[in-house]
Amino acid sequence: MSLDHTDRRILQVLQKQGRISNAELSEQVNLSASACHRRVQRLETDGYIRNYVALLDARKMNLPATVFVEITLQSQADELLDAFEKAVARIPDVLECHLMAGTADYILKVVAENTDDFARIHRQHLTRLPGVAQMQSSFALRTVFKTTALPV
């Protein structure tokens, strides 16, 4: 399925206002409520809309520290990559894990209460990941810009 202008407008609005009512959404995209509802259902069924979530404030959740961790593995063997990816997915403090091309094999985005909490995460979880040869951590001083909205 290809997206037309109306589909894209629906996606733009829903990315910023996920709890908007169908009536309000239909007004914003100039469709009848029933046509709008059908389009949203189709976008969900076709996988353009994966889920609806609440975005929490990390500071209010007492997790103000963001740490980016570059990890280099001992090898690129499929079994090791699979084992690493399964293990890292089980660490609740890791928000993102990206397989990279470049100097590191993976980059993780980790949240923590402070440096002591990150030391705990590092000691109890990150150092125990399979196949880790080297790790380098960088603390974000301030988040300048952050969005979850994809360009549509």
Automatic annotation (TrEMBL):
Annotated Gene Ontology cellular components are: cytosol
For this UniProt entry, the molecular function terms from Gene Ontology, in alphabetical order, are: sequence-specific DNA binding
Q: Which GO terms describe its biological process?
A: regulation of DNA-templated transcription; response to amino acid
Give one Pfam hit by family name.
HTH_24
Which key words are in the record? DNA-binding, Transcription, Transcription regulation
PROSITE patterns under this entry?
HTH_ASNC_1, HTH_ASNC_2
Can the keyword Lyase be found in this entry's annotation? no
Instruction: List, for all copies, the residue spans of the domain called HTH asnC-type.
Output: 3-64
Read off the PANTHER family from this record.
Answer: LEUCINE-RESPONSIVE REGULATORY PROTEIN (PTHR30154), TRANSCRIPTIONAL REGULATOR AZLB (PTHR30154:SF34)
What is the name of the protein in this document? HTH-type transcriptional regulator, AsnC family
Species of the source: Phaeobacter porticola
